[in-house]
Design a protein that fits this description.
Elements: H1 2-22, H2 41-53, H3 59-70, H4 80-89, H5 91-103, H6 111-128
Helix pairs in contact: 1-2
């Protein structure tokens, strides 16, 4: 399973990095002079999406897991307060990247999902009458 998670993380990072390189306006504003973040925006988004995909609701548990199992993929895995602060400041960027990832998959336009949604809606309407 480790190879599958490594592959997913790598593919997610590459896609996110390419998207953020093409759309630098999505990233948070940073001063020209100062300390550069140790974790890139693409790495932050990759960690956040992996946390959601793997079902971790606790940031501290996620960061322990990431440090132990994904540490070889990232130059730096932050501690919980730094991760939390970066996530809160990058909400807009994360939403935009997730939306771009969702529209890039076939599930976004899959007729099976649309048909399932119609069936579910039809069932609700039939219960009302």
């Amino acid at each position: 399973m480790s190879n599958e998670i490594d592959t997913l993380a790598t593919a997610l990072y590459v896609t996110t990095d390419d998207l953020l390189a093409a759309r630098p306006d999505l990233g948070p504003a940073r001063p020209r002079v100062g300390i550069a973040p140790r974790l890139s925006d693409a790495e932050l988004v990759t960690l956040a999406v992996m946390q959601a995909l793997l079902g971790f609701t606790s940031e501290s548990r996620w960061l322990r897991y990431a440090h132990t199992h994904l540490g070889h993929l990232f130059r730096y895995v932050p501690k919980q307060p730094g991760y939390n602060k970066r996530l809160r400041n990058a909400t807009g960027m994360i939403v935009a990247v997730i939306r771009a990832l969702a529209t890039d998959t076939t599930l976004w336009t899959d007729n099976v999902w649309r048909a399932a949604g119609r069936v579910r809606t039809d069932r609700r309407e039939s219960r009302r009458t």
